[in-house]
Amino acid sequence: MIISVGTDLVSIARFKQAMIRTDGFLKRVFTPDELKLENGEPRAAISLAGIFAAKESIAKALGAPDGLSWQDCQIKYADSGRPEVKVTGRIAELASLKGITNWHLSISHDAELAIAFVVAEGK
Amino acid sequence: MIISVGTDLVSIARFKQAMIRTDGFLKRVFTPDELKLENGEPRAAISLAGIFAAKESIAKALGAPDGLSWQDCQIKYADSGRPEVKVTGRIAELASLKGITNWHLSISHDAELAIAFVVAEGK
Amino acid sequence: MIISVGTDLVSIARFKQAMIRTDGFLKRVFTPDELKLENGEPRAAISLAGIFAAKESIAKALGAPDGLSWQDCQIKYADSGRPEVKVTGRIAELASLKGITNWHLSISHDAELAIAFVVAEGK
Q: What is the ipTM of this complex?
């Protein structure tokens, strides 16, 4: 049973501007684990834009209520490269309230755009 | 159970050209409620392009048969900003014939593109 | 029950470059049936880019393991224009292993981008 879906399109150029111009943007939106790769190197802007699109998609699938924390929705890449969703805090509460038991997420980007889409599944 | 899915990508620039160049375009594609916001102001082109992408996605999920009326598929935004689908007339008949009971829709746009995707669910 | 989802965004310009610059690209990625239209004419690059995005989406939904053959995932357009997925060989084996029984696919493109998304459904 599908509870809801969400999609988000992110301009890489505008995302990079937000990174540069908005104080504390990266630390507010991303968790420490998201900001770096497995090898400890910083994650590239294009990949962060994809994670940003994923978080927006998930917020939309929850009805985009006010006051969500970006940190309560973490995207982690499995070894295969498949993105996985881990929700905590208020986002986990909301998801549970809506009966969501599984998040199915996919992310893609080319040079200029990142896109994510998510299907929230329940029982 | 998923009956079908649909997605559509719309260039905002080309959508604006259609708005300007094609007589009667807006009144043919959108219902009076879609053309204005809650406060009575006209809906911006970028938001109309998103609704257009949603209608195209839904037509694709139905197999894009000839002779559908754009007016038989209305997109309404809930207070939360979540888009909801209401089908009437021939589109409602086709959806019923295919066993579709729920439409799960999400829309996104940046400055240049609008995208929609829909999952048609049945029982 | 949803097993997984996949999406892919393809720049038409970069796809055309790959067509020109990469020896054997078309014959490696597409089956003979995909390369031509029903009437025998060659399929346009923009439409091939959409099929490419579809194949990438399906690979992502399978976890993008190494060693998949592009030829084991064929996209065929029904008379209605709806794209259908036919998997063979190792891709069919993997899909079966994951319990995937249905592929729900949609493709869209404008002048510059092609996008596909797929929902892999099981029982």
A: 0.93
